[in-house]
Write a structure and sequence with these properties.
mainly alpha; rod-shaped; 2 helices
Length: about 100
């Protein structure tokens, strides 16, 4: 068997190693969080864009139609319906 002094020394060394491992692990966690922070911002921005996208489409349609009316004053009902078709289709896909 080992002597008491040797076991005490090994126990102290083991505790020291555990503290050092914990410090390094915490340091790696901090570095990882700091490094991945911009990716989190990007994910939140993309999520926001996906949520707002159908609303932006609906808001842009009247503006586009107003511009088209200024260049092409006469429009038929079918043409108006066809102009709204992509927005309606994208809204229906969002609710599936």
């Amino acid at each position: 068997m080992h002597q008491t002094r040797e076991l005490t020394r090994l126990g102290l060394h083991k505790a020291s190693l555990r503290r050092r491992i914990t410090r390094r692990r915490n340091h790696c966690i901090e570095l990882t969080q700091h490094t991945l922070q911009p990716i989190g911002w990007l994910e939140r921005a993309l999520s926001l864009v996906q949520k707002i996208s159908p609303l932006l489409t609906l808001a842009a349609i009247p503006l586009v139609q107003q511009i088209q009316r200024s260049f092409f004053p006469r429009r038929k009902r079918l043409a108006t319906l066809l102009a709204w078709a992509p927005a309606i289709w994208s809204m229906l896909r969002q609710f599936r």
